[in-house]
Amino acid sequence: MCKKTVIEAKIIQNQEIAQGVYRMVLSAPEIAAGASCGQFVNLYPKAKHTLLPRPISICEIGEDTLTLVYGVVGEGTREFAGYNAGETIRVSSAIGTGFKPQKTKTAVLVGGGIGVPPLVELAKQMSGEKIAVIGFRDEPFLKEELEKAGAKVYIATDSGKTGFKGNVIELIQEQGISGDYFYSCGPKVMLKALAAYCESINTPVQVSLEERMGCGYGACVGCVCKIKENTETGYEHKKVCKDGPVFLGSEVVWDE
Amino acid sequence: MSNHQGTEKKLDLSVNIAGVTLNNPITTASGTFSAYESGAFYNLNELGAMITKGVANIPWDGNPTPRIAETYGGMLNAVGLQNPGIDYFIAHELPYLRQFDTKIIVNVAGRSIEDYCEVAEKLNGTAADMLEVNISCPNVKKGGIGFGTHSEMAAKVTKEVRRVSKKPIIIKLTPNVTDITEIAKAVEAEGADAVSLINTLLGMKIDVHRKKPVLANKMGGFSGPAIKPVAVRMVYQVRRAVNIPIIGLGGIMTGEDVAEFIMAGADAVSVGTAAFVNPTAPADIKNELIEYMQKYNFKSLKEIREAFTE
Ligand SMILES: Cc1cc2nc3c(=O)[nH]c(=O)nc-3n(C[C@H](O)[C@H](O)[C@H](O)COP(=O)(O)OP(=O)(O)OC[C@H]3O[C@@H](n4cnc5c(N)ncnc54)[C@H](O)[C@@H]3O)c2cc1C
Ligand SMILES: Cc1cc2nc3c(=O)[nH]c(=O)nc-3n(C[C@H](O)[C@H](O)[C@H](O)COP(=O)(O)O)c2cc1C
C-alpha cells in the first residue's frame, strides 16, 4: 500500500567536484531499485527552521546506491555540503515522471550547469549514438562520467575558459551537431531557446523543468507549469513534481 | 507504530464533531493533502478525517509561479486554490476517498455566495461526511474583500450554505482580522456546526538580491511552526466565545503541539505544513499524542483539556 517512503540514508561520499558543486553518493538500495532516469529525490535538511525538502535530480543509479550532484546555492545545500561520509541524510523515494529514452540513431543531450547531472543516468540508459553538449559559466563537471556512459562530449563555457566560448545552442550550430532526438535539463532560458531551436529543425526534445516546490510529492499543487491542453486557456497547470519534471518541449507554454 | 496498538485500545482518542465521530482528532489541513499522493506514504485509515483541498463550483486555474517560498520556520503559499471543480471532484476524486476507513471533509471555496451554495448542494447526495467552508476567499462582487474578514459577510455565507446543505458545516476562519471571536460568534449564530482555525496569515517575502517579491502573487499565506503561537491564542479566545466544536490548526508539528491545541480548547486538529517536512507527519503525530497521553496517564482528549489550568 505504501509505495513511497523517506529513509535515513548513509552517506558514502560527499565530495566537491567543481567549485561549489558536490557529488553525494548515498547507500539506498530500496530507493535505487525504484528509480529511473530523470526522476528526482527530496533531500530534507536537518535544521529545524528549514522546513521544505530540496529536490535534487538523480545523477546515477547504482545497484545499492544513488549518486546526486548538487550546487551550493542557499541554506539547505550549504548544510548538505557540510556532511561527512558515514553521516546520514533523510531522502525520499524517487519521484516524478523522468526522461523516456527513445530508440533513435543519434541522441543529443543538452545540459546547462547544475542541469547536467540527470543526463548521466540518461546516457547510461541509451544504446545508440549519443552526443552530450554541456554548458557552464566557468568550470565544467561530469565530463568523464558522460564519456564513460558512451557520449561524445562538447563543452561550452560563458567565460571561454574551457571549450567553446558561448552557450550550448551556439555550440550546436557552430559544430553542426545534429541528431534525431534531443533531451535537456538546465536553466529555463536555455530550455526555452532549445525548444524553439528543436522546433525549427523539426526534432523532438524532452525537457526537464524546475519549479519551487512545497511538499515535493504531488500533494500541494505548488510547483506547476503550463502544459498545452485543449482547454479554454489553451493550457493546463500540471505538477512539475508528478507529471514532470520531464515534458516534451513542444507541449510546454514558454511564457516567462 | 505497532507497539502502540495494544494501548491504543485502552485510550479513547475519539471525538464527536457535530454528530460525526472521528476515530481520533487528527485530520489533514486543506491544501496540504492528497489522498493518492499522501496515501503513498502512510495508511490513511490512521486519520480521524481527511480534509480535502479546496474545491469550487468550476475549475480554478490558480496563480502563476513561484507559488511557494520558504521562510524561517514557516512557508508562504500562493497556490490560488487551483482545483478541478466540483463536478470533476465528485466524479473522479470522491470515489477514491471512499475506500478508506476514515471520515471525509470536503473543503469548499467560492468567489460568491452562489458559488459556495452550488458546491454545497452538489455535495448533498455524496459520501462527504462534512463540509469545511473556506471563507478566506475574496468576494469578487464586493471588490475582492475576504468573506472571512467581515462579520456580516461571514454570517451571510454561513446562513446560505447552512440553508442548502444537508451535511454538518465547519466554517474555516481567517486569522487576518482584528477580533476573531466576533467572526466566530457571527457564524455560530447563523448555524455553523463547528469552526476551524486558523487559515494562513497573510505574509510576504522579498528577495533582496533580485530586488523583487519571491512569490509571483507578491503576497501569500504564511503557515508552519512559526505561526503556532498565533493559532493557539486564537483557539483559546474562540473557545471562550462560542459553544460549537473547534478544529484547531496552525503550525502543528508534534503530538505535544496537539495537546497544546486541545488545552487551548480545540476538539480536533489539522496537520498541514508538517506533512511537507515529513510526509508521514499526520500518522507520526497521532502516535506522539498517544505517547504524550500515556506519559501523563490521560485516557481521553477530554482529560487533556480538563487538566489545563490558568
Ligand atoms: C526537479 C528538480 C530537480 C533539481 N535537481 C537539482 C540537481 O540535480 N542539482 C542541483 O544542484 N539542484 C537541483 N535542483 C535545484 C535545487 O532544488 C535547489 O538548488 C535547492 O533546493 C536549493 O536549496 P537551498 O536550501 O540551498 O536554497 P534556498 O534558496 O535557501 O532554498 C529556499 C527554498 O527555495 C527552494 N529553491 C531554491 N532554489 C531552487 C531552485 N532552483 N529550484 C527549485 N527550488 C528551489 C528550496 O528547495 C527551498 O524550499 C532541482 C530542482 C528541481 C525542481
Ligand atoms: C500549500 C497550501 C495550500 C492550502 N490550501 C488551502 C485550501 O485550499 N483551503 C483552505 O481552507 N486552506 C488551505 N491552506 C491552509 C491550511 O489548511 C492551514 O490552515 C494553514 O496552512 C495553517 O496550518 P499549518 O501551519 O499546519 O500548515 C493551505 C495551506 C498550504 C500550505
Compose a concise summary of this entry.
The complex is a heterodimer of chains A (256) and B (310). Chain A has 256 residues and is of the alpha/beta class.
Structure keywords:
heterodimer; A: 256 residues; alpha/beta; Elongation Factor Tu (Ef-tu), domain 3; Rossmann fold; Dihydroorotate dehydrogenase B (pyrk subunit), domain 3; 3 domains; 7-stranded antiparallel β-sheet; 7-stranded mixed β-sheet; 16 strands; 35% strand; globular; B: 310 residues; TIM Barrel; 8-stranded parallel β-sheet; 4-stranded antiparallel β-sheet; 18 strands; 34% helix; binds flavin-adenine dinucleotide; binds flavin mononucleotide
Account of the protein in words:
The complex is a heterodimer of chains A (256) and B (310). Chain A is globular and about 50 Å long. Chain A has 6 helices and 16 strands. Chain A has helices at 29-33, 75-81, 117-125, 143-148, 168-175, 188-200, and strands spanning 6-18, 21-27, 40-44, 54-57, 60-61, 65-71, 88-92, 106-112, 129-136, 151-157, 164-165, 181-185, 205-208, 224-228, 235-239, 246-248. By secondary structure, chain A is of the alpha/beta class. Chain A has a 7-stranded antiparallel sheet. Chain A has a 7-stranded mixed sheet with strand order 11-10-9-8-12-13-16, sandwiched between helices. A two-stranded antiparallel ribbon of chain A has the order 14-15. The model of chain A has no long low-confidence stretch (mean pLDDT 96). Chain A folds into 3 domains: 6-92, Elongation Factor Tu (Ef-tu), domain 3; 100-206, 3-Layer(aba) Sandwich (Rossmann fold), CATH 3.40.50; 209-256, Dihydroorotate dehydrogenase B (pyrk subunit), domain 3 (Ribbon), CATH 2.10.240.10. By secondary structure, chain B is α/β, with parallel strands linked by helices. Chain B has a single domain (5-307), classed as Aldolase class I (TIM Barrel), CATH 3.20.20.70. Chain B has 11 helices and 18 strands. Chain B has helices at 5-10, 35-38, 86-97, 113-122, 151-164, 180-189, 228-239, 255-264, 274-277, 281-295, 301-307, and strands at 15-17, 20-22, 26-28, 49-51, 68-71, 74-77, 103-108, 130-134, 138-139, 145-146, 169-172, 194-197, 201-204, 206-207, 212-213, 219-223, 246-249, 268-271. In chain B, strands 3-18-17-12-11-8-7-4 form an 8-stranded parallel sheet. In chain B, helix 4 (113-122) packs parallel to helix 5 (151-164). The longest helix of chain B has 15 residues, at 281-295. Chain B is globular, with a radius of gyration of 18 Å. The relative contact order of chain B is 0.16. The mean pLDDT of chain B is 95. The chains are: A alpha/beta (256), B alpha/beta (310). Chain A binds chain B through residues 1-6, 44, 48-53, 92, 211-225, 233, 237, 242, and chain B through 31-34, 36-43, 53, 61-62, 65-70, 72-75, 77, 79, 82, 224-225, 273, 275-280. Flavin mononucleotide sits between chains B (29-32, 53-54, 77, 79, 81, 107, 134, 172, 199-200, 221, 223-224, 227, 249-252, 271-274) and A (214, 220, 222).
